[in-house]
């Protein structure tokens, strides 16, 4: 079995992940974007797959300890937490910067009509 086949097999085994006849699919666009960011950062050498899998496993364990039902519906929340953690640990962006950006995004999304592109403005970062 190749590594790619093993990775696909592992994803298929996660309960609760949406899937079609070909296998797992993304339930929300942000999930696909988080997936793509992880691949891009790995390809640029920010982290190894070993670092990724260890950090993802740790994030899942943390969530379970905090009461996550671990039924698969929060999988990409763990994926995003892993991304944020590795970016902060590697010094690409501080945890504070990540939180400020997430809050700015939330403010911009709140004022954006459904279906329109979300555009960040300087005032979104003012808090």
TrEMBL record:
Chain ranges of the Nitrile hydratase beta subunit-like N-terminal domain: 18-104
Superkingdom of this protein's organism: Bacteria
Disordered: region residues: 1-24, 108-127
Record's protein name: Nitrile hydratase accessory protein
Organism: Rhodopseudomonas rhenobacensis
């Amino acid at each position: 079995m190749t590594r790619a086949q093993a990775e696909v097999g592992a994803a298929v085994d996660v309960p609760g992940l949406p899937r079609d006849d070909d296998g797992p699919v993304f339930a929300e666009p942000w999930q696909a974007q988080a997936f793509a960011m992880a691949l891009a950062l790995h390809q640029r050498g920010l982290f190894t797959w070993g670092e990724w899998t260890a950090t993802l496993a740790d994030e899942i364990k943390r969530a379970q300890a905090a009461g996550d039902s671990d039924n698969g519906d929060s999988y990409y929340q763990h994926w995003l937490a892993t991304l944020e953690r590795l970016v902060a640990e590697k010094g690409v962006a501080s945890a504070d910067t990540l939180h400020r950006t997430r809050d700015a995004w939330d403010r911009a999304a709140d004022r954006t009509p459904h279906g329109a592109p979300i555009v960040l403005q300087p005032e979104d970062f003012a808090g």
